[in-house]
Design goal:
Length: 307
């Protein structure tokens, strides 16, 4: 019940100001956000590599309102890629990007987002890594898939995300499960209407399983983004049934969530990639993490009250 309320608050400027300024917020934010700067995130990439984990790095900040902010977002990713190159960490880290941050919701946003994301994808390819386009709310997805297709003409390894809660996703999965593709399946983190998305958790889980099967039976590289123990076990089973070796798909989890399980799966021989968000504009990302687990909200409330 609380999830939709928190997701609605994630779009409110008043709540953004209140929560950002509340004493105790930082302590909870730090659990999910790896730092504010490139220099703070680099040791985390190295630490992950030492534990047999890979990462996908997300510079947070989707709520931009001007083309200048979109260009600054592009530059933040270029700075990150430059630093990974200097440190020889290119093959340990890929990038996750939200096209909204590159200007997708502004006037002429589709073209602007494509123009901003292309140099990031190019720079990633130069250092031997790649970019995955995150899935945002359903109204942005046709544009995201078109940009994905466009980028794949020159950079076929560019990945994208699909969300199990959307009715459209099984069709998208079938279309995307072709040779050379990289597709992350997640449950979905936005507040979506019943006209486009399953609302019931059991229905979402069943749809997730159907999509894992499509991806495993297809020719592409499935990336399973979930912390759900049942879905992880089902993925292993469907991977085996499809005759895939352990390095022919990967698990992905979020920084700060089920860290022991991340290490356990990597130690079993699975590829495990940790989605690691950093930056100063953490509000939207943080609120989605609160919405996913009501216990986080209790922890957050307690931390504010005890400050
Ligand atoms: P759940 O049933 O929500 O969680 C299973 C268990 O995991 C919970 O019982 C709990 O123990 C733990 N857990 C899950 N979430 C939390 C949390 N926030 N805090 C503490 N414990 C938690 N969504 C999008 O819409 N677009 C994207 O591009 C996108 N990218 C993602 C990338 C990755 C790598 C991951 C892991 C998730 C991504 N998501 C994205 C979020 C996703 O849609 C879900 O909201 C999120 O993963 C929670 O779903 P779950 O599969 O972990 O299952």
């Amino acid at each position: 019940m609380l999830g939709p309320v928190i997701l609605a608050a994630s779009r409110s400027d008043t709540m953004r100001r209140f929560i950002s300024a509340a004493p105790g917020t930082k302590q909870v934010v730090d659990r999910f956000i790896a730092g504010e700067t490139v220099e703070q995130v680099v040791p985390i990439v190295k630490d992950a590599a030492g534990k047999g984990l890979e990462v996908t790095l997300d510079v947070v900040g989707e709520d931009i309102t001007t083309p200048e902010q979109a260009a600054a977002a592009r530059d933040a990713y270029l700075e990150l890629i430059g630093r990974l190159k200097e440190l020889g960490l290119g093959t340990k880290a890929e990038m996750s990007v939200k096209l909204s941050m590159f200007g997708q919701s502004l006037d002429g946003g589709h073209e602007l987002a494509l123009a901003n994301v292309r140099p990031v994808v190019e720079a990633a390819a130069v250092i031997g890594t790649t970019v995955t386009l995150d899935a945002e709310d359903h109204t942005t997805l046709d544009s995201m898939f078109t940009i994905h297709e466009e980028l794949r003409k020159d950079f076929p390894q560019t990945g994208c995300v699909i969300q199990a809660y959307l009715f459209r996703t099984e069709d998208d999965a079938r279309r995307l499960a072709a040779a050379g593709s990289r597709v992350r399946i997640v449950k979905g983190a936005y507040k979506e209407p019943a006209s486009v998305a399953y609302q019931d958790r059991a229905e979402i889980d069943k749809a997730f399983v159907r999509v894992i099967k499509i991806l495993m039976d297809g020719q592409g590289y499935p990336m399973i983004g979930s912390h759900d123990p049942r879905l992880i076990a089902i993925t292993q089973e469907l991977g085996r049934k499809a005759g895939r070796k352990l390095d022919e798909y990967e698990f992905q989890m979020l920084y700060g969530i089920r860290s022991d399980e991340q290490i356990r799966l990597a130690a079993e021989g699975h590829r495990m990639r940790v989605y690691t968000a950093y930056g100063t504009d953490w509000y939207g990302y943080f609120m989605r993490r609160l919405a996913e687990k009501p216990a986080n909200l209790l922890f957050f409330g307690r931390s504010i009250l005890t400050k």
